[in-house]
Design brief:
With about 190 residues, the chain is an alpha+beta fold. The protein has a single domain, classed as Alpha-Beta Complex (Cathepsin B, Chain A), CATH 3.90.70. The protein has six helices and seven strands. The N and C termini lie far apart (about 75 Å).
Length: about 190
């Protein structure tokens, strides 16, 4: 009987020691997203017009306008040419038939601002400028993770050039991809 009591006491002590040593991992994950139907660019320089169509149809899903209509409206013909931030904004407003007011910023939106816009069911067109190219993509999701290794900020974006979606750290999106201007719904 004494042996059994000591054995149970030993097991209980061992259990308490092991349970106090176990690491508990907690993480907070906050994801904010908006549904989009991303369209691929029809010409090599029409990323801006494809993004305008994608985002304009979030504002007005029944819009009959396509990226080709955007290029014709903004450029005066279906020319294979890139578009500025202002032209991207104007194209988005055109597709949305001015039901919402899309604006542009000459800077990247903060992670917090991106999250706020997306929480309002509006994606953001990010204009990427680096030494290799100028390009437009649609940011449709943000994700904040707070865990034992710190805070992490991610975005998901649709690229009209290849029709793919990408998950990337916000800091890398700004630094490596060259996120520098924005078109967003106010």
């Amino acid at each position: 009987m004494v042996g059994r009591s000591r054995y149970l006491a030993f097991l209980l002590s061992l259990f308490l020691i092991l349970s106090s040593m176990s690491l508990t991992a907690f993480a907070t994950v906050q994801t904010t997203s908006v549904s989009i139907y991303g369209v691929m660019q029809e010409e090599t320089r029409w990323c801006w017009a494809a993004c305008a169509e994608t985002c304009g149809k979030v504002s007005y899903p029944n819009s009959p306008y396509t990226q080709e209509d955007v290029v014709i409206e903004i450029k005066g013909g279906a020319y294979n040419t890139g578009g500025s931030a202002d032209e991207t904004r104007d194209g988005t407003n055109f597709v949305a038939e001015y039901r919402d007011i899309w604006k542009r910023s000459n800077s990247a939106l903060s992670f917090s601002s991106l999250t706020t816009k997306i929480a309002q069911d509006r994606p953001v067109i990010a204009l990427l400028v680096n030494s290799s190219y100028n390009h437009a993509v649609v940011v449709y999701m943000t994700q904040f993770i707070d865990n034992s290794s710190g805070e992490h900020y991610y975005i998901d974006y649709f690229d009209p050039e290849d029709g793919a979606t990408y998950h990337i750290a916000y800091e890398d999106f700004c630094d490596i991809e060259g996120y520098s201007k924005s078109v967003y719904c106010s």
